[in-house]
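Methods — Computational structure assignment.
A single polypeptide chain was analysed. Its primary sequence is given first, followed by the predicted tertiary structure written as structure tokens.
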Amino acid sequence: MQNFLNLCKSTIGEEFVLIDVEQQAPYLQDWRQRASGKALAILRPANTTQVAQLVRLCAEYRVPIVPQGGNTGLVIGSIPDLSGNAVVMSLQRLNSIRQIDIANSTMTVDAGCLLQNIQTAADQVDMLFPLSLASEGSCSIGGNLSTNAGGTAVLRYGNTRDLCLGLEVVTATGEIWNGLRGLRKDNTGYDLRDLYIGAEGTLGIITGAVLKLFPKPRNFGTAFISLHSIHHAVSLLTLAKQHCHANLTGFELINRLSLELVHRHFPQYQRIFSEPSNFYVLLELSGYDQEDSTHQQLEQLITAAIEADLIVDAIIATSIAQAKNCWALRESISSAQAKEGKNIKHDISLPISVIAHFVDDASSSLEQSFAGCRMVTFGHLGDGNLHFNVSPPIDNQDDDFLHHQAEINRIVHDKTDQYKGSISAEHGIGTLKKQELRRYKSPVELQLMRTIKQALDPNNIMNPGKIL
């Protein structure tokens, strides 16, 4: 392989072909510190042409490629296996914002751009790029596209797939497909863009994208609401859609334990209510009126919810600081869980109409099989996405509990399938859920996916071992 590495060095420069183990280390550890891999080299190209040249070399020498952006993925999809045969293709140096077209409401970017930098660039021209994730300061847009990331504003703006008009992709044979068209209507054959979005780098490497921009909202309304049950939360969502229409931007569900963990591990955040409830909803509206109509809408909604006996209590944020505190409580749940100890995570989606029944049913089944297990249930109720996580009983050792992960996954995922849901809502499949995918996808679906993989990556060098 020395000749291959020498050719890589001559293509992008010796300093950008990382061979040293210590230099490689940050690229080989997954985000949750659960798995690590080995690599022949870390390749750090500077532009799309260099990516294509490197892919052609990899194809010639049959070297597997693991594309990597910010390496913030949650399903062990962006690190290599332990064989040491693969290279990691890091796109961190592809970080330019190529063009902002205000008239077309689009921004063309390199795949390695950090999500937060894209948000800032949009804000500087008085526009909005609405994708928002807890990892937005670290994750790249290429990774967001490769996993079809969701976030907190899907209810109004859609997933990453819905926010992208065109792509630039280096194929598995090293050709460059320039699909950077900022068109909202284009019916010229198969939608190649949608093949690569959500493919987790198994079909090609996304190097650029045309993203949708939106007018920046002029006013916001934020409310934190306590409820007796998740059934009331689902009913409140229906009521909020009726009252708030297109202004309804976010509708986040938080169960009691989720909030308790945040207050335990992040006491700097102000408590909202003096008395605990079983469930909470963080609701956000955004509008474009010159006069702030969002607060009026929120007041009317809460009044209607009280009259319908749906809520226990509610606060409407009266300042930016109060609104930020509300969102800090929601965004700190995952970190609080990590501080509490190890847990078994599930990223699932369900029809909104059955979510409450699923939570009751699955929680009951888990309690029967694992007495004392603690449910940390939160997520984007507005679009049907739950993070349905299971923590060990208080007196149970984390590692002992984790030995039951396969059994717990089976209960949760079987129930998800029973209620016609998906075992992966916004995190992808990677290696973590590859075996689970085989259990829940039909033979027809799996064969269609294998056919696409074989057609676009005949040498199986693009992120092999992931998804399929």
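Note: The longest strand covers residues 204-212.
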